[in-house]
Structure formats: C-alpha cells, structure tokens
Amino acid sequence: MNGATRAILLGAPGCGKGTQAKRLQDVLKAPHLSTGDMLREARKAGTELGRRAAGFMDRGDLVPDDLVIAMVQERLARPDCEGGYILDGFPRTVAQAEALDRAGVVIEAVVDITVGEDEVVRRITGRRSCPSCGRVYHVEFAPSRDGTHCDACGTALVQRPDDQEATVRERLRVYHQKTAPLAEYYRAKGLLKSVEGDGGPDAVFARIMAALGHAAGGPAR
Ligand SMILES: [Zn+2]
After folding, report:
1. Is 171 annotated as catalytic?
2. pTM of this prediction?
3. Which entry of 92, 122, 178, 187 is annotated as an active-site residue?
4. 47, 85, 90, 104: which is deepest, by most CB within 10 A?
C-alpha cells in the first residue's frame, strides 16, 4: 500500500461529502474527522474544549476558530492519525487554512466536490431526522418504513430548520462566498482537485479515488 493520505474534503452543504468521507475512511484506513462529530464528541465527553464549544452551539453561534483548531489539533495528535486523516468540512475559511499551516498540519490533497445548486436543494430539503437518536432519512432517497417515524426508535421525524429551502439557499450563498477564496488558496498550492459530485455515490467515490491517487503520485508502480 501507499503511505498516508492526508486530505481535506471540500464541498457545499448537501454535496455528499460526509458519505464520501466515511467510505474513504474504510478504504484508506484513515479516520474521517468532521468538526461536527468532533464538537459533539467533545461536548458529550464534557472536556474543557467541549464545554466551551457547547456554549456557542446552544446560542446558535459559530464556534470560534481558535476553539475548533485546538480541537482538531488534539484529535490529529492521536495515534490513529499516524496513517493519515480525512478532514471533512474543515477548514472553511482561508484564516483557518493558514492557522492549520501554522500549526504544522500536513495536507497533501484537497478534494472539492462540486454539485449544482438545485440538486443540493433537492437533496437537503428532503432530509428528515430523528430528534431522539439522530438517525437521518430522506423522503426520496432513504425514507423510513412508514415515512414519518424513525425505524430505530419510533420517534416522529422532523425537518431541521436548517434544511428548509430558503435557509439552504442562504447557506449555499454564504458557503460559496466564504469557500471560493479557500479553494483558490489550495489551488495556488497545487493541492486542489475538483471532482463532479453529480451521479451516484459510487461514481463520485471512484472520481475521488482517482483524484487522490493522482495527488499521491499514482498507484504503486
Ligand atoms: Zn430514532
């Protein structure tokens, strides 16, 4: 096998990034690290960083950069990251990317998954989640058995306010405004790989693997 893959996945909300990151984790044996998961973990564990982050999350505010970066660094220092890691949804801004560089975090490839806006809206507005156990469904692609209750625990499913159309379009606008400079930042470093996110998850996964293989110098020769 090749050496470690240290990569960032970029992509607008609803591009399928989380799904792809989990598959990459299985294939590359590199942990998939999303800030959302790290924040929830830290919060649940009641760590110092987790408690501070919880205050911001409960007010509906973004968790500040220095706090997120401290959490990422703490996570990347664990032994399971020695063989590589997949950062999902972080960094979001050039300021965060620069902070990662300053922290000495090695990034070998940045995969940007691109999907058209209307397709993203369709994917996101169909999401339903279980307020009790957190399981996520989709009215079109992955409905629960009766369409309205969680298969695992029977709780009535809800559409999160974040997943309503007006909110989604606004999130996309903000995302692109913030992320375009980030993509440029990594393009200038020769690390950016744009991958089409349309089509099924298998096709997208194959494109990502090809992009990463290329970034890592190709398959073993
Ligand atoms: Zn449930």
Report:
1. yes
2. 0.74
3. 92
4. 85
